[in-house]
Amino acid sequence: MTIRVKFFAKLKEECGRGEAEVAFRPGLGVADIWSAATGRGDMPASVLVAVNMEYTKGPVTLRDGDEVAFFPPVTGGAPARVEIRAVPFDPYRELGRHEAQRGERGRAGAAAVFIGTMRDFNDGAPVETMSLEHYPGMTEKHVETICAEAGTRWAVQDCLVLHRSGEIRVGEPIVLVAVWAAHRGDAMDACRFIIEDLKARAPFWKKERAGGSSRWVESNTAGYAPPERATGTEES
Fold first, then answer.
1. CATH 3.90.1150.200 matches 80-220
2. Is the C or the N end of the chain the one with fewer CB within 10 Å?
3. Domain 2-71 class?
């Protein structure tokens, strides 16, 4: 009888493996699994935990065959199509295809669209390439849940979310979020809600590379240019 353990992003590198198995005993807790799988002491407070692809906090009763995942903080109602793709995609072509498949011409008076692309800098440092890791299964489930939540807050008719994974180059699209609704306010607010959750809570992790070095991104930007850059007073 065993517990299956998974590590992601920086923790996978630090542990030297992405998966492990721990012998199951009644009464084992998440902290016990951490210690047995890593050979370390107490689990750091910053480590996030998912049991069977569900975020969890506090005591959890584990059972034989459960899957426990450990990962660092994540840097990602209405019908929704959610896909994580390991290869580049054309967001405008994907929008056209989805529109054609919807077959509901005239119902939606508004469509709000967000397209995020990889830039060549972050936090004032140059970036040449990026590796985007995710938790297969849990990531899609999380995005579907947040789209459903958007559908309970606003009068949303349809959602489309496409997100890259793997190796990404400067200028390549990373994410497409599109929301259809009868009115612009619902579409725009729901689209903003989905992308902000993707950036803050969805289980994605970024590793940036430039000049022969690399770093894991600990958190995403706030979504706005720093005040000095926005006003044109930033020093070079």
1. no
2. C
3. alpha beta
